[in-house]
Q: What sequence folds into this?
């Protein structure tokens, strides 16, 4: 019997906006000025939130915080493409995506203050709470997208994860089962080049992460993750496909410009030249140049926006502090089960100092 | 009206009834569709409910994890994990997500998933097909753990588990799937979770046993010269401590029987609770009759591993004669 080639693959890459802000007009999506400005605004909000959160962490007000600085286009560009009924399934660095979907800065800060109040989402919000175990959340987006398929509804779910997550079994199971179930799911992999200290090239021998879709039999595409237009366009198409039961993996090439979390020091494992190189490809600077070129942004509008964001941040910090001040420790018993079991009720009573642990 | 059913038939009947009752119930797992499950617990349900029974790709983490998403999106997923030992592959999803979705979202979400899984030894199966990890699941706050010991309990407890707003690990004793037949009510039959039952009344000693160990205990009792009270918890977590406590206060003696290893088995929790709630009524040290602290041996040695009537009777005698 002869040897024959039974499968071959290729991976497309999409770029629309060059680092200098110049645009490929053939590929430029037709977005309203309002949508474009919203994307810009949310990226700026996310960046300032990161700065403020890190400062608050340094003075002891927040716990560990994972900044998304540098990844704003990957997150906002993709989340902006979602329809109202679509679901967001975040990892733990998705502040920008969550802001796009209407989450408040106050709740993001509250989460970083160690309060479940900051993760208090529901089906109405169309967002799950952040997921810390890397890659695990991709499966939840499969379940949500599968539910839409079962009920023959139009909504889709988008799962966010990073380059490190693509090495986990859960992400492979997610890609594979999404295909098998025909789930309405888009996987948005932000390849930010590092899983804490481990560089992308040590994570896998695969030439792209997008090609991880190939083994699962679903579509995969790579996109310039620092180009909000390209991310928007790729996600929009992926969502259209997903709504038809064809899940898609989008690999957004980006860079984690800041630390992994506030407990991390990137100087231990990467060179400054590399950081400088990526600074030049910054997603916000590029998008701002594009908007200025189109006359959507002016100095005045940028200043106004900066002032709005500062005011929003002040309110958010005040809100989060208030949430922290009002947090009742006994709430931990309230939400463990729909109905608190008797033995747990006994512990709750003991914790209040009102009862003791003796059933006699 | 009632029908004579085996446990596996009671499970299947209940799944069908719950799907008919609530259209958000979906069934999925490895081989549950066309093949009807390796124990045939879902046989025929795909034909009856064509868009609500799914053969899953292999991968238990994927099965549990997708269930979390289904539940978040308003479905009531009932997943089968083919053998309990393979639920370890899905344990991270159970522990990190299913069990705590409610608490970490402060009740914004709940996770009403039921994981059905055959467990336990005694059917001469392959390695990794005979374990009893109920104490491990019970150690995960946010989960409920339910074990039926008869066909009628299979129906009543499974219906309650599927309707429960929180995630339930529903462990089906493989040894009882086809070995026991009993009258099972045809109509709506729900046994509330968290309620134990006294399987046999007695005055001298309390024996707590569940799953296939309950049947062995009931037959071991015949060889003991004592009036034995047998308590069947039915729900491992949340445990009905009151029923056990009342019984031990009456008898003053207690034996716990389970097939899982002794150390940190659920017997340890039961004995600990008894010492807290009924210490001054105890007339003898509590006894445990359990599997040994070794990996479950392959089936040629499983009879030597599993508590049998002889060991159970000896444990009861120790408690009574002290």
A:
């Amino acid at each position: 019997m002869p040897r024959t080639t039974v499968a071959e693959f290729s991976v497309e890459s999409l770029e629309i906006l060059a680092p200098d802000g110049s645009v490929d007009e053939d590929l430029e999506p037709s977005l309203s000025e309002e949508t474009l400005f919203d994307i810009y605004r949310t990226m700026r909000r996310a960046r300032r939130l990161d700065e403020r959160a890190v400062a608050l962490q340094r003075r002891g007000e927040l716990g560990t915080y994972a900044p998304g600085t540098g990844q704003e286009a990957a997150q906002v560009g993709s989340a902006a493409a979602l329809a109202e009924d679509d679901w967001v399934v975040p990892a733990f660095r998705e502040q920008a995506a969550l802001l796009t979907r209407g989450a408040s800065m106050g709740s993001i800060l509250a989460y970083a203050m160690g309060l479940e109040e900051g993760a208090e989402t529901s089906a109405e919000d169309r967002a799950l709470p952040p997921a810390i175990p890397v890659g695990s959340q991709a499966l939840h987006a499969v379940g949500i997208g599968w539910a839409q398929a079962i009920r023959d509804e139009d909504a889709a779910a988008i799962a966010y994860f990073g380059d490190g997550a693509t090495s986990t079994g859960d992400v492979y199971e997610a890609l594979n089962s999404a295909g098998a179930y025909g789930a309405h799911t888009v996987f948005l992999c932000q390849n930010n080049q590092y899983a804490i200290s481990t560089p992308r090239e040590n994570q896998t021998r695969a030439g792209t992460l997008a090609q991880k879709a190939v083994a699962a039999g679903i579509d995969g595409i790579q996109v310039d993750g620092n180009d909000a237009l390209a991310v928007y366009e790729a996600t929009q198409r992926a969502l259209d496909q997903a709504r038809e039961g064809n899940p898609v993996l989008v690999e957004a090439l980006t860079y984690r410009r800041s630390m992994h979390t506030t407990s991390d020091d990137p100087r231990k494992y990467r060179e400054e030249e590399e950081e400088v190189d990526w600074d030049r490809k910054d997603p916000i600077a590029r998008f701002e140049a594009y908007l200025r070129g189109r006359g959507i942004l002016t100095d005045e509008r940028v200043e106004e926006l900066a002032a709005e964001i500062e005011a929003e941040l002040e309110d958010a910090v005040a809100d989060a502090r208030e949430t922290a001040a009002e947090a009742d420790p006994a709430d931990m018993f309230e939400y463990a089960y729909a109905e608190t079991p008797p033995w747990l009720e006994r512990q709750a009573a003991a914790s209040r100092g009102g009862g003791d642990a003796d059933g006699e | 009206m009632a029908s004579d059913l085996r446990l596996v038939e009671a499970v299947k009947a209940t799944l069908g009834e719950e799907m008919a009752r609530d259209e958000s119930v979906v069934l999925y797992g490895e081989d549950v569709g066309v093949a009807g499950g390796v124990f045939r617990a879902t046989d025929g349900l795909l034909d009856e409910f064509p868009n609500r029974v799914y053969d899953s790709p292999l991968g238990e983490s994927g099965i549990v994890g997708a269930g979390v998403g289904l539940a978040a999106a308003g479905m009531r997923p009932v997943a089968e994990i083919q053998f309990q030992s393979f639920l370890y592959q899905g344990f991270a999803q159970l522990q990190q997500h299913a069990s705590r979705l409610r608490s970490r979202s402060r009740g914004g979400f709940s996770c009403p998933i039921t994981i059905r899984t055959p467990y336990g030894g005694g059917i001469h199966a392959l390695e990794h097909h005979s374990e009893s990890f109920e104490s491990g699941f019970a150690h995960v706050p946010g989960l409920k753990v339910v074990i039926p010991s008869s066909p009628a309990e299979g129906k009543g407890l499974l219906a309650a588990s599927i309707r429960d707003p929180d995630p339930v690990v529903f462990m089906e004793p493989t040894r009882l799937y086809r070995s026991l037949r009993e009258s099972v009510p045809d109509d709506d039959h729900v046994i509330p979770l968290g309620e134990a039952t006294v399987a046999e009344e007695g005055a001298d000693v309390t024996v707590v046993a569940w799953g296939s160990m309950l049947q062995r205990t009931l037959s071991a009792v015949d060889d003991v010269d004592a009036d034995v009270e047998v308590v069947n918890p039915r729900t491992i977590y949340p445990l009905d401590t009151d029923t056990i406590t009342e019984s031990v206060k009456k008898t003053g003696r207690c034996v716990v029987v389970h097939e899982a290893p002794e150390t940190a088995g659920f017997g340890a929790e039961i004995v600990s609770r008894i010492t807290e709630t009924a210490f001054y009524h105890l007339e003898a040290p509590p006894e445990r009759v359990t599997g040994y602290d070794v990996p479950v041996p392959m089936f040629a040695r499983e009879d030597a591993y599993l508590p049998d009537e002889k060991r159970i009777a000896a444990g009861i005698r120790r408690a009574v004669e002290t």
